[in-house]
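Fold these two proteins, one after the other.
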Amino acid sequence: MKNIKEKIIGSAGSISGIASILGSWQVCHNVCLGLIAILSVLGITLVGMPLAFLTKIAVPVWSVAVVFLVITALLHLKKKCISGKLLTFNSGLIIAGIPFFTQLSTIFMSIGGVVAFTGIALFIKDKLTKKRCCKNE
């Protein structure tokens, strides 16, 4: 039962990160370009942006990501059952994907990128520390 709860909580954190990415037009634009590039390798040609519909739902998707982030942060504070590094990473993605204030999007992307990179760096540092610890035993 505990394992199922952990999987659900981990999935909620992952959904939060994914939704925050989809909340950003710039990222969505890059995903569309990537999709067009992949399809062109397969011989399928597209004109326009196949995922342009996501720009219409950017704010609701980003809002859902924020709600999931708040829920996971509360669970982290209450039960410590969620990795703080994952929470840092997801927070960075949500900051980077803020769909408001488009004139400040570069600033939000930079700040969010730094926060997300910090979460990744802490995760890698933790894994490397554990490997060194286990090799010494």
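Now the second one:
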Amino acid sequence: MKKQLPTPTKKQWQAVIDNFKKVLPFAKKKNHLNMMETTAMAKNHKCGTIHCVAGWYAVALLKDGTINESEYVSYSDGAAAIAKQLGFKNDSQLESWANRNPDIWGNEDGINMFYSKKAYNGAKSLIEVVIYLEGVRDRSPE
């Protein structure tokens, strides 16, 4: 029997969307979204350049102090923070939920939300990811 996973609410999705909106001024160009970029901050990586979805989330949380600055912050920090905000224990649970709920997620590629633009219907920029997540929010329960 599969473990029952929580279903994020509109309010939880909105909190995630609001965090992404904090970094939109730094991610306006189409080439600022690269789903294969694993680093958000490191000694030799300049913050605010190119990040994946979860990397941009980590940057948003660095800016508000939720994630502490250290020598290295990766996409996994952002992925864990998104999952926690949505009520999951970890990012694997969130990916499993998206895989089991394509009607809410919006396509069959939710399991790849931290690895592929296909999970966001081929989004080319962070604003397109935000627009996609607004659709997920709208399909979610109160």
